[in-house]
Write a structure and sequence with these properties.
Elements: H1 15-28, E1 34-35, H2 47-58, H3 71-85, E2 94-97, H4 100-111, E3 117-122, H5 127-134, E4 138-143, H6 154-160, E5 165-171, H7 183-194, E6 200-204, H8 220-223, E7 231-236, E8 249-252, H9 255-266, H10 274-285, H11 291-310, E9 325-326, H12 347-358, E10 360-361, E11 363-364, E12 374-377, H13 382-397
Parallel strand pairs: 1-10, 3-4, 3-5, 5-6, 6-7
Antiparallel strand pairs: 2-8, 7-8, 9-12, 11-12
Length: 400
């Protein structure tokens, strides 16, 4: 009899973390590695936000807080939702956790029973299906293909919903594709959801402020106010504020759901880091003048990578509307061989051979539920991206 829980048989370790760990191991061995796996800005946390954390330490704000966030942060979150999304929430409708991942996990743990289904567009963030499985639910996938710019259609959503559907888990702009749903596109999806009152909406808006060109972000409860009472809107400070290591995520939704999520958190981690909470107050309430120049830099990097990848025969890379990822298709490379004789049978083989031969670490598409593709995070320096793309070009050119 195994000592370990059988629940673990339902899930797998995070592939993105696995890629990052392998890249670090190879680098420690002296290999020249360029890691494009982690979804983490290479910018430092803005100085005024870091200063707020330092002030919290100096003021002795280092003790336990309320389980799901200090009052000041909840008030800042309410102000953010009103300012940015036109959504009105009271502090008792807000939950703060140790990163967006915990907030999502709490919501699923608090609501899912065996047999409950969660509809998830694919490609998806690698953790969504496994969190659903850990919570006892069943993920149901809708394939968002390259032909439709990695976006699902209303018809697909309608077909995926069943009497067992409890949540529609939605992410825009998307990790891993960077695809963003405009107002009309999202309205078409919310129209479907309005016909199915038993389905709740779990929207992951973590990349809200990372939007480029003419793309304007919108969120489901904003587009369709009638969904307000069955929507949990999740966000955080990790990406746009370059605060990944501070570990603060948050959500707002119906009070009974927030109360249930608090109960889960009270028996797992209890409160998020106090110092990080005070830094997040400053992030939300303070100046946002760093976001526009950071986004301009991300957009330039995006264009560099898209141009370089589309110059490769057999690779197709659409231009994403947001986030800091590209998700190129390698359909034209499947079946080819490396000079050493490795057959590129799938995107996992491609990613491993690319890392071994060139030192460029990417995440294979099967990890996100749609193949044959791979994900590049362009949240790194222009020089590293240019060199990585040159290596990818040489690797692909050598395939026969």
């Amino acid at each position: 009899m195994s000592f370990l829980s059988k629940t673990l048989d339902r899930v797998k370790p995070s592939p993105t973390i696995a890629v990052s760990n392998l890249a670090m191991e190879l680098k420690a061995q002296g290999r020249d590695i360029i890691s494009l796996g982690a979804g983490e800005p290479d910018f430092d946390t803005p100085a005024h936000i870091s200063a707020a954390g330092i002030r919290a330490i100096e003021a002795g704000k280092t003790r336990y807080t309320a389980v799901d966030g200090i009052a000041e942060l909840k008030q800042a979150i309410c102000a953010k939702f009103k300012r940015d999304n036109g959504l009105d929430y009271a502090p008792n409708q807000v939950s703060v956790g140790t990163g967006g991942k915990q907030v999502l996990y709490n919501a699923l743990m608090a609501t899912l029973n065996p047999g409950d289904e969660v509809v998830i567009p694919a490609p998806y963030w690698v953790s969504y299906p496994d969190m659903v499985l850990l919570a006892g639910g069943t993920p149901v996938f809708i394939e968002a293909t390259l032909d439709n710019a990695f976006k699902i259609t209303p018809e697909q959503l309608e077909a995926a919903i069943s009497p067992a559907t409890k949540w529609f888990l939605f992410n825009s702009p998307s990790n891993p594709t960077g695809a963003g749903y405009g107002w009309d596109e999202l309205k078409a999806l919310t129209d479907v959801l309005m016909r199915h009152p038993h389905v709740w909406v779990l929207t992951d808006d973590m990349y809200e402020h990372l939007a480029y060109d003419d793309f304007a972000f919108c969120t489901p409860a904003q587009v369709e106010p009638a969904l307000y009472d069955r929507t949990l809107t999740v966000n955080g400070v990790s990406k746009a504020y370059a605060m990944t290591g501070w570990r603060i995520g948050y959500a707002a939704g119906p009070k009974p759901l927030i109360d249930a999520m608090r109960k889960v958190q009270s028996q797992s981690t209890s409160n998020p880091c106090t110092i990080s909470q005070w830094a997040a107050v400053e992030a939300l309430n303070g100046t946002h003048d760093f976001i526009a120049p950071n986004n301009a830099m991300f957009a330039r990097r995006r264009d560099l990578v898209v141009k370089a990848l589309n110059a490769i025969e057999g690779v197709t890379c659409p231009v994403p509307e947001g986030a800091f990822y590209v998700y190129p298709s390698i359909a034209g490379l499947i079946g080819k061989r490396t000079p050493a004789g490795t057959v590129i049978a799938d995107d996992e083989t491609f990613a491993r051979a690319l890392l071994e031969d060139t030192g460029v670490a990417v995440v294979f598409g099967a990890a996100f539920g749609l193949s044959p593709n791979f994900r590049i995070s362009y949240a790194t320096s222009d020089a590293a991206l240019a060199e990585a793309c040159a290596r990818i070009q040489r690797f692909c050119a050598a395939l026969v």
